[in-house]
Amino acid sequence: MFSLPASLLALAAVSHASPILVRDTNDTNPFVFTNYNGLNFTQMNTTLSNVTIFATGGTIAGSSGSALATTGYTAGAVGILTLIDAVPEILNVSNVAGVQVSNVGSEDVTSTLLLSMSKQINTFVCEDLTMAGAVVTHGTDVLEETAFFLDATVNCGKPVVVVGAMRPSTAISADGPYNLLEAVTVAASPLSRDRGSMVVMNDRIVSSYYVTKTNANTMDTFKAPEMGNLGEMISDTPYFFYPPVKPTGKRAYSIMNITSIPRVDILFAYEDMSNDTLYNAVASGAKGIVIAGAGAGGVSTSFNYAMEDVINNHGIPIVQSTRAMSGEVPISDVSSDTALHIASGYLNPMKSRILLGLLLAHNKNMTEIADAFLGSTDD
Ligand SMILES: *[C@@H]1O[C@H](CO)[C@@H](O)[C@H](O)[C@H]1NC(C)=O
Ligand SMILES: *[C@@H]1O[C@H](CO)[C@@H](O)[C@H](O)[C@H]1NC(C)=O
Ligand SMILES: *[C@@H]1O[C@H](CO)[C@@H](O)[C@H](O)[C@H]1NC(C)=O
Ligand SMILES: *[C@@H]1O[C@H](CO)[C@@H](O)[C@H](O)[C@H]1NC(C)=O
Ligand SMILES: *[C@@H]1O[C@H](CO)[C@@H](O)[C@H](O)[C@H]1NC(C)=O
Ligand SMILES: *[C@@H]1O[C@H](CO)[C@@H](O)[C@H](O)[C@H]1NC(C)=O
Ligand SMILES: *[C@@H]1O[C@H](CO)[C@@H](O)[C@H](O)[C@H]1NC(C)=O
Ligand SMILES: *[C@@H]1O[C@H](CO)[C@@H](O)[C@H](O)[C@H]1NC(C)=O
């Protein structure tokens, strides 16, 4: 004989009698409901939407010994349950299940982790009719890359809301709890469907396709400088400025059969730029290269010759993006008669890197890669 935890007995006792299961705070097992995918819920109110929170770590999960410190805390120190417990208001909005994908600062997120998380979102959220959407908690430093990857690889119409925090959870006026509540609210809302992945922070709803971290320190950092916000949160209620719309140039890719993403390096352009960084990247095994070019994709003359050599003689695709905060790289600014230069259009170097990696993972050839970037470019 073995004894069932009280919460399981409670579940067995009430699952037919009541559509509402709440957590028994005296029980060491905090979960009252486990769905067919093995996802655990701390509450089940069947009239509410269901949202799965995929936790990767980062500042939103950070803790610090001092309520005044906004630096020096250990990112990823606080787990998913603590996250939910810190914001009980979430349970008025949605039933939430948690999946701990990793517990790292965002700088340690890898393409292996992105593939694994995207597959889990496709399986646990897209394929489950009872699930309204997904929330991804993430460190903010490379959040825009993860958000872009999920936008490209989860395309079932359900919202994937990526959220982080700029202040640690122990700071005065920490932004994590309210950001998390807003993120769950957006993920649970039917208004959020068919808008791709979104970043919800600081009361703004921004498209993951375009969003970038514009400030290294402040809370009002995630913006799409030219394209603007999709909507705003007022008293934890989403207001979308327009009906659902797909970003121009966006394409969707399935990663369900992809096991790895080839290496793509980013090289930054500057005065006196020599060409050896390019050859070093090739020698180190890069299968694709993105240039954070000066202005509309510009590089030095010597570097440009080397790029043509690498494109033509090594068969390595090179995407020219811009180191400028906004604007695009049009094809006309990079094209030549001697090699197939690829313009990033409105995709910044980080997003271009993600897209190029996905295309290489799908074994796309140079022309197909150039075509895929075409949609994001002018002329
Ligand atoms: C939890 O334990 C306390 C103290 O033993 C008791 O008063 C309370 O009724 C218990 N709560 C539940 C939900 O069983
Ligand atoms: C759900 O809870 C069970 C039992 O505690 C655990 O084995 C399982 O890993 C949990 N599932 C997830 C997705 O965390
Ligand atoms: C369950 O959710 C509904 C809203 O859909 C709410 O009115 C009700 O109070 C909730 N029940 C509990 C016990 O929280
Ligand atoms: C939430 O999940 C529960 C359990 O799977 C399900 O009974 C309920 O219908 C779901 N809620 C919605 C709004 O789909
Ligand atoms: C949930 O909503 C009810 C009814 O509006 C409110 O009384 C309660 O305080 C809310 N709970 C939380 C944790 O916000
Ligand atoms: C993945 O591979 C399986 C088996 O080869 C195939 O049936 C399926 O269509 C593939 N799925 C995608 C999305 O490519
Ligand atoms: C790369 O730079 C070196 C040193 O400036 C130069 O000798 C070489 O010709 C350049 N390569 C190309 C392809 O222009
Ligand atoms: C690239 O792929 C396309 C579509 O499969 C094909 O038509 C084209 O011939 C290929 N180009 C090269 C250079 O292999």
From TrEMBL:
Coiled coil: none
Protein name stated in the entry: asparaginase
GO biological process: L-asparagine catabolic process
Stretch forming the signal peptide: 1-17
Catalytic reaction(s) noted: L-asparagine + H2O = L-aspartate + NH4(+)
Active site: 59
The protein's enzyme class: hydrolase
Keywords: Hydrolase, Signal
Classification via Pfam families: Asparaginase (PF00710), Asparaginase_C (PF17763)
Family matches, as InterPro entries: AsnASE_II, Asp/glu_Ase-like_sf, Asparaginase/glutaminase-like, Asparaginase/glutaminase_AS1, Asparaginase_C, L-asparaginase_C, L-asparaginase_N, L-asparaginase_N_sf
